[in-house]
Design goal:
The chain has five helices and five strands; from the N terminus they run E-E-H-E-E-E-H-H-H-H. It is of the alpha+beta class. The chain folds into two domains: 5-80, Ubiquitin-like (UB roll) (Roll); 89-160, DNA polymerase, domain 1, CATH 1.10.150.120. The protein has a five-stranded mixed β-sheet with strand order 2-1-5-3-4, sandwiched between helices. A hairpin with a 2-residue loop joins strand 1 and strand 2 (14-20). Helix 2 crosses helix 5.
Length: 161
């Protein structure tokens, strides 16, 4: 058994000082050691996108990274989307447009879409579809997810005008 390493994960603005084995994945540390269970674990191979978070401003698959690699870096999870009791426009759009069924893939889609919209508020439909195609959903058939993200994009774009 390997020795543990002391690290601090900065998740949604809160510091989490934890001790982890060097081989522990970031998604496991976020969930098990920091209690942020909104980030889900799916395939554990970086294929499904369920574990998508935003690390230093970029959407990443947290199952493909070791927790020690995120020491001191800014992590944003689905728990950090809402502003207190006010839902993020993406969260509201997923509700309004029935963008989820079982909800297992939803945190990953929300974080992927939030990152895309924050980087490019004027993202076109074609590029948006390319971005969303990297995450998998087994329940919805994707159409309502796409509608929800488009609606959020339009809402967020309108808020900035």
């Amino acid at each position: 058994m390997s020795d543990k390493v002391d690290i601090t994960l900065d998740i949604n603005g809160a510091a989490h000082a934890i001790s982890v084995e060097p081989r522990k994945t970031l998604v496991d540390a976020i969930r098990d050691d920091c209690g942020q269970t909104g980030t889900h674990i799916g395939c554990e191979h970086g294929v499904c996108g369920t574990c998508t978070i935003i690390l230093d401003g970029e959407a990443i698959r947290s199952c493909l990274m070791f927790a020690v690699q995120a020491d001191g870096r800014k992590i944003r999870t689905v728990e950090g989307l809402a502003d207190g009791e006010t839902l993020h426009p993406l969260q509201q759009a997923f509700i309004d447009h029935h963008g989820l069924q079982c909800g297992f893939c939803t945190p990953g889609f929300l974080m992927l879409a939030a990152n895309a919209l924050e980087h490019n508020p004027d993202i076109g439909d074609g590029e948006l579809l390319d971005v969303l195609a990297s995450n998998l959903c087994r329940c919805t058939g994707y159409q309502n997810i796409i509608k929800a993200v488009r609606a959020a994009r339009d809402t967020m774009r309108g808020a900035k005008v």
